[in-house]
Structures are given as C-alpha cells and as structure tokens.
Automatic annotation (TrEMBL):
Keywords: Signal, Transport. InterPro entries: Bact_solute-bd_prot1, SBP, SBP_1_CS. PANTHER family: ARABINOSE-BINDING PROTEIN-RELATED. Belongs to the bacterial solute-binding protein 1 family. This is Family 1 extracellular solute-binding protein. The keyword Membrane does not apply. It holds the Pfam family SBP_bac_8. GO terms for biological process: transmembrane transport. It comes from the Bacteria. PROSITE patterns: PROKAR_LIPOPROTEIN, SBP_BACTERIAL_1. Residues 1-19 form the signal peptide.
Amino acid sequence: MRKKIIGLLLATMTMTSLVGCGSSSANSTTEEGGTITIKMLSRYSSDQGPDDITINKRIEEFMAENTNIIVEHEAIGDESTYNNMFKTSIATGDAPDVFVNYGGTQFKEYVESGLFYDLSKVAEEDTVWGDKYIESMLDALKYEGVEGYYGVPFSCFATGLYYNKELFEENGLEPPTTIEEFEKVCDEFLAKGITPFALGDKDNFRGAHLLANLVLKRDGFDYTKSIIDGETKWNDTAMKEVFELMNSWREKGYLGENITTLDSSGEQSLFLNGDTPMHLNGSWFMNQVNDSDNPERVGFIAFPYFEKYPENKNNWHSGTSEGFSLSATNGEERLQASIKLLKYLTDEEAYNESQALSKGGIYPVTTMKEIDDITPIAKEFQAAFTDVNEAKLEPGDYAAKAQLREEIRDAIQGMFAGTSVDDTLARIQKVTDME
C-alpha cells in the first residue's frame, strides 16, 4: 500500500483528462493536422501530493510545448481499481501508451509476451537521461532471463522506524538500534500500559513489510531468494526464527490487541495522536508527519538489526515505489511520442521539483540537488538511509508465482489471528511447491 491511497479513496474512479485542442480516439495513430494522441494511465489523481502535482503540471507543460501530441490522462486514485483497469486494458488490446508500473514478477508474463518496451534501448541512445538512475532501483523492473529493463522509477521508498521523541523522553528510554534493544523498550512501555508498536494487519501488507525488514536483517537476500524459488524450505532455520519472533511479539502484546481488525490508517492515527511510541512505515509517511499537529515530536531511525548478525545491519526494505513503463504494441508513432513524454516526466528537474514541494525525501536518481528548505523528519531519514548494502522489496515481490505474494501476506495475517508458526510456513510452502 502506498502513500497516495490515504485520502484518495473518494477518487476511486475519478479521471483527469488532459486533452489538447479537440477530442478524438486514442486508438487512432495520426490525426488531422498532424497531431497524435497517446494514452496515459496513472495513479496521480490528487492535486495535493508532491508527485501528483509535479506529474500533472508536467503533462500540461508537455502538451503546451508539443502541440502535435495530445495526452489523454486517466488518473485512478484507488490501487485495486487501477490494477483492474490496467489488466482489462491489456486483455482487451487497448493498452495505454504510458502507465504506472510497480514492477515485480507479476509483470513478467507481460514482458515475456512483448507487451512492455525495453527502456534500456532508450537509455543507450540518451545516456544523460538513462545514466542518472541508481542501479539497484531498476531491479524491480528487470526480469530473470530477459534482457533490459521495462520501466524507470519516478519515486522510491525505504521503510524504517518512526518514533515519538516525547514518549521516549518521558519514560527515560532511547530509540533502539538492535532487535534486542527493541524488545527491552517494548517491555518497558508495556509495563506502563502503553502499546509499543501497534500493527494494523487488517491491511495485510503491514505484516509483510515487517517480515521484509526482519528477514533482511537476519540474512542476505540470496537466502530469501532461495526460499522463494523453492530451493530452500520455508521452515528452514533462519526463516522460521523470523516467523517465531513475529509471533512472539504478537503473544507478548507488542503489536496491540487488534492486529487483524486494525487497518493501516488506524495504526497511523494511533502513532500520530501520540498513543503508540513506535511505528513501522516508509519514506512516504514523512508527508503525513509534516502535516500532523506536532511533527517535531517524531523522529526516525533505521529498523533495528540483530546483534548476532551485524553484517546485515545496512540491509533495507527499499526499492521502487512506482515507475513508468511504455507499451510496445501501439505502433512506432505513438511509441516515439510516448518516449518523448516519458523523458519529460522523468528528467532531472522533474525529480527536483517533487523534492522541493515535499521539502525532502529519497529519490531513485543521482542528480538530486541539495536544498535548504528540508523538513526535520526528512533530515533524519536521509541521515539514516546511508551506507546501504542491500535494498530489496518484500519477499513475495520476487516470486515467479504471482499468487505467492498474496499467500505470504494472508498467511502472516492468519498467524496473527492464531495459526501456529508451523502451519503458517506449511501453508506458504504448499503454494511455493505448486507446479
């Protein structure tokens, strides 16, 4: 789940049409007067988020500068509705020319079918545009056995631990740097009747994000990939230790009493209202901190690491939040117009415009300008997000079987509802072993 979902659910089917002079079907290639229409499908339906403002503004500017290109932009706020609309457009042969893509193996079939355009070709022809990307941020848009990459990120993320400075100071505690310190802090808060680390896994990505952080701190990504690929079993020692740890936190009460009935919005509200002292979330949450009543009381640190495995200290649950991909099936004229639009939406200044609006953040390119007007929480986030070793998505994002991602999420939710660790791991293994 991403930052724009909150506050956008009312915009589920809102469409932002940015159409130039005259209206015509985007299925045609070249129109009267030498104009060409391309279709864009995105999640940028808000006029408030920095990315939304930047992208919608740039589409308008692009059409003003390129009067022969009309961009029909459908912007869908709700993630599920967006995904369904995208799948329908592909199935009906009406693929958008430019679209938001989150990467991961769920898109591999489309790539192998030749539906997505290989953007490494664009980067080879325009190295100024292509060389600015941080290599690891392209990982989610690459596919094993397929050359090239099939999207470029507009934003990236990392998750870590937000904490309430006032609650820590009032209780004489320091923010934890290790898992062992984290558990001691949780015990101290619980002893005083304070839920230390509420988790709203009614939205089942929350448990998956917790798993992603813990497994990366427990072992390197090669280990996780071997489990996802079926080479190592889910009940192997290290993975089982992580699941047992998560379950023990549930049993001790660290995660609250309503794990599977509390949603992510409720979890965030508890933290922002000062009811819970620690909160796992991504870099996108900085915007909500900045808009809260008391942003100064919120701090940020890297997610704690295991004392026994310090070599994994700098592994982060991190990667591409969202990127842009192009259709490879709508003809050469529309493809070239789409490449031109893509470059305009993702040039150096586009990223810096978004950074200026958000007053900080982390970005997938090496060309970010230093800015003076940066929020305190952004400063702390940037200070923590350094010396990164491995930056990886949640385990299910690397699964060859698209259903495994959701099965992992659902199984964790089931564990938080009372299913044993052994049965939870067996459930995931069953899907991993499916032909």
